[in-house]
Amino acid sequence: MPSVKRVTIGSGLRYDLFMRDDPALLKPLLKDHVSGQLKIAPEHTSPSVLKLMRKMPLYDIREFTDRFSRTAGGLNKKLYIVPYLMSCHPGCSLGDMNSMKKEVVSVFHFVPDQVQAFIPLPLTLSSAMYYTGSDPLTGEKVFVERDGSGRRRPHDMFFTKYFTPKK
Fold first, then answer.
1. Fewest Cβ atoms nearer than 10 Å: which of 31, 39, 118, 129?
2. Distance of alpha carbon 62 from alpha carbon 80, whole angstroms
3. Where are the domains of the chain?
4. How high is the pLDDT of residue 114?
């Protein structure tokens, strides 16, 4: 549209889908459509939780962050990645959250200030798992934490003494 001078990504990007289609598009994306921070949606790092989310890893997150850094450096722009993460998804344990935090620190070298706690939304498989305690497509039992303080623990793991990254 002639009247539109610039379009930027504000809400986030499924980096794995983007890179699966054409990794060469990363440079024009960063050059013209990212103003400073690019939110990406790994949501989780646990293979078992990602499987329940129906998100199979399509592109390695470390490879993406390395390519992002190299590309941004070549553009002489200060660009940052902010991971979008989720806690309390059905099937997610305290161990999964602890592993996710370690992986996030290893990949991004910081702990994000925000982690979204899973909230069941109508008409989603994840909500069906939350309410029934089983995967509606396989019938397998799925751990679900419904207690308020129990749901708070894995969420707070990113912000409290449960884990201190090694320097």
1. 31
2. 14
3. 15-156
4. 84
pLDDT digits (tens, 9 = 90+) for 114-152: 889 999 999 999 999 999 999 999 999 999 998 888 888
How far is the C-alpha of 28 from the C-alpha of 77, rounded, in Å?
13
pLDDT in tens, 49-91: 999 999 987 889 999 999 999 999 999 889 999 999 999 999 9
- Residue with token string 């161990």: 95
Give dist(CA 122, CA 31) in Å, integer.
38
Contact 94, 45 (CB under 8 A): no
Helix, strand or coil, per DSSP, at residue 11 = coil
Q: Where are the beta strands (DSSP E) in 21-124?
A: 37-43, 80-87, 116-117
**Whole-number pLDDT of residue 160:** 64
CATH topology assigned to domain 15-156: Transcription Regulator spoIIAA (3.30.750)
What whole-number distance in Å separates Cα of residue 97 and Cα of residue 86?
A: 9
